[in-house]
Each structure stands twice: as structure tokens, then as C-alpha cells.
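Usage

Read records sequentially. Each one opens with the input sequence:
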Amino acid sequence: MHLLPLLSLLSVALAAPSPLQQLPFLSPSSSASFNLPASESLLSSSIESKLAQLPLDHLSQLQEHISQWTEPRRIRLRAQDGSGGSIVDLTEGQKALLSLVGLRYIDITNEDDSHVVLTKPSTPYPSHLAHNASSLSPLFESISLPSIKDFLKTFTGFRTRYYRSQTGRDSQLFLLNHLKELHSSLNSKAKITFREFQHEWIQKSIIVRWEPAIKTQDYKDEVVILSAHQDSTNSLPFLPAPGADDDASGTVTLISTLTQLLSHGFNPVSNPIEFHFYSAEEGGLLGSGEIAKEYRSKRKEVKAMFHMDVVAYIKPGTKPVIGMITDGTNHDLVQFMKLVVNEFATIPYAETECGYSCSDYASFTKNGYPSTCLAEGKFEDSNPNMHSTRDTMNAEGYSLEHIREFVRVAIGYAVELGGMKKESSRGGGR
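and closes with the structure output:
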């Protein structure tokens, strides 16, 4: 495919005031090399238009950002038809230009598909559930919307949770400390460990592993994963990004799920459970990609990986549904999740497709593990406020009640696949 240099597409640089012409990444003499498919004419004009509209201080900050992060990266762009798109080489800083125009992409710099072997759990997913909504009603009835709101207020109060920013690190430490406090205050006897997964950037992913207190003859060391991504971004990474829906909503769903399980004396029996809070999803699935790759290299077995990304928004004028992503996911696990949603949620599911690897579940799929993903509704009804300062709890359509539905599903998933031993409760939900 014929490639055209990005800089030759940016004719806006020539028509802009002289201060704009002095920005190195827009100058024809710049050493930056950023190539785009010639067929992406709409994209090139969109980049030109967006750059022309930016205030000079944002352009200056963009230049600084691109100059600071010069590490070479390999990126797969989402094609206009939603299929796997072209591969381009650029720098870490230049990825900001993709975000500026809302282009979806995956960072495949360290991807290795040469030895991927699709794995299956040692036993099939249940065709009938061991529990019902009535038996789990004590866990559901004590889900606390005020506690969910309080967490969101603090978590979205960080200026940005961008994975290379100090506030991204600060928000991650707040999250880690909150998780540890839940463990110590609600059920310190639960066999839980906390791991900060090290990346080359400042924000770390968090893995909370919950082992059965006693490993019976039915125990299998196939981990049951629940996950969300903790980072946020604006269309430019240095701008404020509250990320209340994307993906503080998924993060607080995991928080509330863990809270309910701890406070009601749950303990896994048949499988260990892990809660994953990924860093750098907004950088092209970087955090989950490194974790999935490590799990594969260490031959760790994963029974199921269940991801939640944006679960708070209900498009005005539509009925609430749980979006069940069917492409890029494991068919058998999706069928099991349909059983879980039908039993434990009070609203129906609706099948939907991303059309590309739209969140962290794809990292596990690529590494041979069975994954599934739920979202707030059909893909075409997605929150228009994402990647902006408008992604707040006060935005029209943002619903704590909708988040609660996903907490119910997550609890059901954990109990069904992790097994459940009920011990004495230490109290209700927080």
C-alpha cells in the first residue's frame, strides 16, 4: 500500500501564523516520520483540521509531548470498515495525533503471535448455574450506590489518569490503597495478595489475587479473571480527563464486587480469582498486553477472563441493556455469560460488536486465553463524552443504577466460576 508522510498532509502548517510554523513536529524540516495509508484521506484532512483549531498553547504542549516521548512504536490502525487496519511506525509521543482525531488503534510493538496456542479450560463452562438471584440476594441488596458515588468522586477528581502522568501514578496508588483497606477492614482473613505489575511507564497495573483458604480435591489452578482499565485520557494526553465512564465505571464495578464478596464472607473454592486493574489501555492495550504475554510465557492457565469497559451510560431515549460483545471473544464463554446476565441482572443483554480489538479483553484473546467483554449497551449507542472533560458523573445518561447491574453480573460470574464457601459475614456492604 502506498504511504504518504504525515507532514506532507499537514498543509495547515503552511497557512498558519508564524508561531505555529515554528513548531518542529509541524515543520517540513522535522525529523519526525509518521506514515499513513493514502486511502485514509479523510483522516489526513481531519488531522489538519484538528491541528488548525487547536489554541497555540495546546500546540506548544503537543510539540513538547512529542519531543519528550521519542520511543519507536508499531501501531495497528483500525480500518474504516472496522477490520484489522494498516500497520504504521511512529513514536510514543506521536500517538497523541491519533487520539486527537479519535482514531482507534492497538500498540503491537512487543506483540508476538508466533507461538500462540488457543487454550480451553479443563472443563466446559456450566450449562446450568449453581446459584440463582434469590440465593445471592443478600449480596445484591447491600450494593451501596452512595459508596460507588464516593469512590467515583475521588477517582475522577484526579486531573487525568493518563498512564505517563504523575496524577496517573497518584490515582493508581489511591486505588491500590483503597483495595488494601477493603481487605483489612472487611475480611482480613481472606487469602488475598496485591501485586503492582511493573511497566516502563509510571502508572502500574494492579493484580488482586484471591486464593481459596483451603484447596480441596476439586481445586484447579485455572485463574478466573475480572478486569477493567484504570487509566483515562483526553483527546490530547496532557488535558484534563475525568474518565467517569471510561473506565472509572468498570473500575468501581470491580471495587463494589470485591466489597460485596468480602463483606459477606465469600471465599473461592474451586479456582483462584483475580481482579485486574490495567494501566495504559488508552495507549493501545499496553498494560493488559504485557500481563497476558507474561501469563502465556509462564504457562499460567486462565479459566475465563471477563472485562468491563464503560458500563455507566444509557443513551437517552433507549432502554437499558447490557452490551454483550460477540466479536474477538470466546464463543463458549459468551454463551455462559448470557446465562449469568439472564439470571443475575434485572435488565436484558443485547449482542453487539466492536468491529476491532476495542479493549483489554483482546490482549488475552491474542495470547490464547478465553475472554469476554460487557459494555454499557450496543456499540452504536456508546457514550459521546468519552475522551473529553465532559466524561463526568453529571453528564446526561450517566447512571449509578446501571453500574449496579454490572456489579450483580460480576458477583454471579465470580461465584459461579470460583466456587463459593460461605463463612460468617462481617457486615453489609460499604
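Summary fields computed downstream for this record:
- The longest strand covers residues 84-91.
- Residues 1-40, 424-430 have pLDDT under 50 and may be disordered.
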